[in-house]
Amino acid sequence: MKFVIVLACLLALAYANEEAAVIRSDSVVNPDSFKYDLELDNHIKASQEGALKDKDEWVVHGSYEYISKEGKPIKVTYVADEKGYQPVVIQ
């Protein structure tokens, strides 16, 4: 269920700017795995993939990037698994 929360956060970030157009949107969803990539023309990119590890446990890897209000590129990579959400911010 963690991947649903992470996915919702990424989509909220991506669609925060209603003027942004989708440049690329790819997704593959299976019962035990998923993968998606999203790129908007306002420099927002997001990608995520996950797989069902056990009956009720997902392991999700992903990243998103954007340009801050100060004009700096920000990239966040993360893992979400039994240890929780583990982000790494790269500025």
How is this structure best described in words?
The chain is mainly β. The mean pLDDT is 85. The protein has one helix and six strands; from the N terminus they run αββββββ. The protein has one helix spanning 2-14; strands at residues 22-30, 33-40, 45-52, 58-67, 73-81, 84-90. Pfam families: Chitin_bind_4. One of its GO terms (cellular component) is chitin-based extracellular matrix.
* Rg estimate, integer Å: 14 Å
According to DSSP, the number of beta strands is 6
User: What's the domain count?
Assistant: 1
* Main beta sheet: 6 strands, antiparallel
Measured distance between first and last alpha carbons: 29 Å
- Strand order across the largest sheet: 1-2-3-4-5-6
Number of helices: 1
Q: Provide mean pLDDT, rounded.
A: 85
Q: Portion of residues in helices?
A: 10-25%
Which residues form runs of ≥5 with pLDDT under 50?
none
Kindly estimate the percentage of residues that lie in beta strands according to DSSP: over 45%
Spell out the helices and strands N to C.
Answer: HEEEEEE
Any idea what the shape is? flat
Looking at the chains present, what oligomeric state does this protein adopt? single chain
Q: Structural class given helices, strands, pairing?
A: mainly beta
